[in-house]
Amino acid sequence: MTTKLKDKIKAYDLMLQKHIDKKDFVKINRTFKEREDPISGFILGLSKTFLLVQCENEFLLNGYSIIRKDQFDSLRCNKYDHTIKKILKQEGVIDKNYGINISIKLTTWQTIFRDLKKNDYHVIIECEDMDEPLFDIGIIKRIGTNSLAIQYYSPTGLLENKLTTIPYKDITIVKFGDRYTTTFRKYLRKSAKK
Fold it and tell me: What is the C-alpha separation between 44 and 98, in angstroms, rounded?
């Protein structure tokens, strides 16, 4: 790696760290196969490879997302984002809900999934950079060298008997701690054995 590239990466990481330190509200723009999928919220952590973001939706903080740093187009923190932060502050949302109370080692997908499994999180895993994007939701069951296996559950709340295997190389985002998974998990039912 050239010195120029190292300096560019260092400056980039310093900019991201500045947003963490200032608790800036940001919009992270992401595009996969000409489909836009931005994330808005607060960056809580970064590593060499990953970002941990606390997500905002309609003036509520709603779970977390982990994305790869090399898989987003741009980051915005302007007057619109300052206004959102001001509203969240005035509504008491930041004081009550900002941050995360567990430690997630953002080194590899394996370390991330180990920590999520240890803390009993159900996950939403998306593979958006494919011709046919994949969306999987479920319970982390097995963490391998090149892939993980989850016990998928359907929109009707049925737990699949067979595990779904997802290669790490295909993952673009992992979501957890959101209202959807934390509520839905209470109503899951086992599929009938075939």
Answer: 9
